Fold:
Amino acid sequence: MMAGHLHAQNKVQPLLTTPDARCTQWVDSVMAELSLPERAGQLLMAAVPAQMDKVTKKQVRDLAKKYKIGGLLFAQGTAEEQVMLTNLAQKTSKVPLLIGFDGEWGLSMRLKNVPDFPRNAALGCITDNQMIENYGREVARELKELGVHVNFAPVADVNTNPLNPVINVRSFGEDPVWVAEKVVAYGRGLESGGVLAVVKHFPGHGDTDLDSHRTLPVLRHDKERMDSVELYPFREAIRAGLGGVMVGHLQAPAYEKNAHLPSSLSAAVITDLLKGQMGFGGLVFSDALDMRGVTRVPGYVVKALKAGNDVLLVQYDAPKAWLEVMEAIKSGELTEEEINERCRKVLECKYQLGLRSKPEKLQVSGVGFRIRSEEARNLAASLRNKSVTVLNNYFNMLPLSTDAKGRGIAVLSMGEKTVDSTFVAAMQGHGAIDCFRLPWDASEAAKKEMQQKLNAYGRVVVSIAGVNYVSDADVDFLKNLELQAPLAYVFFTPYRLLPILTPALAKANAVVLAHSAENDLQQHVAGVLFGEEAANGRLSMSIGNLFPKGTGCDMVPGTKPVTAMPDDYGMKSYVLQSIDGIVHKGLEAGAYPGCRVLIWKDGNAVYDKSYGSHSVKDSTAVRTTDLFDVGALTKTTATLLAVMKLYDEGKLKLDDKASSYLSILRGTNKRNITIRQLLMHESGLPPYIRFYMEAIDPNSVHGPYAQSWKDEWHQTQVSEHSYYCSNFKFKRGLMTAQQDKTHTLHVAEGMWLNNSFKNTILRTIARSSLETNRSVDSDLDFILLQQIVEHITQLPLDLYVAKEFYAPMGLQRTLFRPLEKFQKSEIMPTASNDFLRRQDLCGYVHDEAAAFLGGVAGHAGLFSTASEIAAVYQMLLDGGTWNGKRFLSEETCRLFTTEKSLVSRRGLGFDKPDVSIVKRSPCAPSAPEAVYGHSSFTGCCVWTDPGSRTVYVFLSNRLCPDVWNTKLGDMDIMTDIQELIFQSLNQKKENL
Structure:
């Protein structure tokens, strides 16, 4: 289907078609006038230099007159000299000559002082294939000025081998579909301009590590791989109607069993595969027969004809090749019928390319001017500009901000002064930008001095131009270039230089690949860096594992520069950028449908991204304003705030007994539990109690309430191997579908619980047994703290924290029972088919105990956004102030955020890292002991580090759709992100 789609869009009007009657008549007439030796000569194309000297002129006359050569291939000279030699050759030849040219990237590949177009690897980065077609049409126009009929281009090799010594920049890329699109577009342009396109090097030279000019490369792939990669662009070119194919000197054991026989001499490859299976009916050319990949085979000239080539590129020894063909005819190795068949095909091609009569004399005068037209220059510049590829742009470093927190911009030019001087001047034209130059292989002292200079700047751009190799010492210098600023690299070189520099590029915020260093291109790239020019290239070849093929960022002119980046606050943005990969792996693995990651440094958001969607059923992208069920973050973002406020006001003390506020605990084994013990989870209360079991009618449950297999009565899956009863009923009078005076506890949609159940919960806690190990993370601790707060304030917890904190802090999206204020579309779904409420949950707290308390509980029930959670913790980090208003005393904040249990890692309400046993820690290995925060069952966490003054918030709905989904924890996603935060911090500045 893919190939068919490409073919349908890129079908061209073929230059070579089935011969009509007039063509056949002309071929018959010419054949009648040609002797057998002359017919043999028509199958040969010889190469001559485009140099109008006596030796070359004699060579041209001999080839045309004595050997009746079929065509000439010019190289290495000037356009004027080639035109003069072409006129001489056509005048001398009995049959019009087929003039060929090896112009993979236009005339500049072989001639001097002609338009210089980008190499194919650069063209492969262009996303607009119409430009490639326009380029092909312009190349055809220039070739026609020289009297050329055949261009040995485009290259259809898929360069999947980064070590390929001969194809590399000559290829359009490493993706077969991408390459096919470019091949067809270029070929379509050539043939629409009247020049035959010859696609090469069949069956594919891209995955070789040897040069066929020097030896015989081997394609070690089976037919399935060859068909899907190497052959794909050729098949698309054939389907599109392109008229020529060149066969390369490479061995393809999948088709040719003789390990010493190159494809160019293989009937299995040319006749059976190319002409037979792939249905190619155009002209088949051999690659140059002077290359070592073929000359080691005895009788290679004759073998090339017998294999199925129509035209042999015999290069600089055409007479010898002609004699070998004549000897093969005399010996019977080649038959007259074989020669006649090939000759007819060549003559048919000549007729259809307009060579039915002697060509008109080409005009030498002004040929260079006509070739170097303004349109050609503009097209070359446009192609260069369109090939510019911004490989990454972390934290939108580009376009550059001249502000850069007042520290300015520095440009470091590596190497010779003249190579990128236009770029340097263009950069300086954008304001007070300081430019430095460091020679390759500079001394260690010079490099150290340069790094010290660059450390003073807010943004640094490194320019690399005019080189294809960088020494190990310079690689190390760039790799170890640790600056206090984001770093951008600009390469005015082919892509092949970049792989050895990937250790340095991995630390860069932006990498711009310009491919070459023309002055107009340097000016354009400077414009890209400042948001004045566009760039939308996509990488045609992978650069190590750092930049896969297809990588690229769009730069839109007029984009407003970002004035602040993580580096401006002492955090390395290239490290933080790796958060993207961690989060995306979680998305791909199904760890959560969507999430938010927010990092504040010194009260400034340095990382703020939304990922994924609301759920597998709802493709709405996660937004910054979306509310999440933050689960246990309620403990520290609501209940603990209330406790701290009351402590601040002297209305409770940490060593007060909870029973002094809650009469239900008096006379029980819990009468001596203190508020401090509740905060530090040292009360001995159990982790949780299934209060909802008191609400279920046991007579309505068939068998056990939960079991490890699914049956008629147990349909609701709650874990990988656990199913809950799905048709139970609640006790009479406890649950109603509508709210009334006695049923005000809103459990879920259409579910209102009797008010009396709150007392049931509290009595159950009072009657519960105490754990032997008194250090237990218990939800019950914070349920009791909620009751204490409500007893002292005479307000429900949600109203009290809203009045004292959320409203005056301007937190409009932090609340309990969010559906009273917001639509479901603004809230992240929490779970699907909840076992207890038997419905999807969105806007209703997931925790069952909190739900049965009406959605407001001390341990769960809060909904919020990442930025508002961060605001609460920033207020604590700032000693109780927010936006200039004090909410808590500095002493209270210090006490509650620093005090730590003597028997566990926990603090006063806050969780903390376990620095003694890192594997048990809820934080990253590098988290300092002073960090405080909390995490939740629902897939959320918030952690504050006073030392670096960072606040980290991660919110997800990992329970949606499956509550038993543990991938978030299994993959260490939250802690891995936190580890990157600490790795990104400048240790010298932060003194961690």
In short: The first helix runs from residue 2 to 10. The CA atoms of residues 649 and 888 lie 9 Å apart. The chain has 35 helices and 32 strands. The longest strand covers residues 604-612.
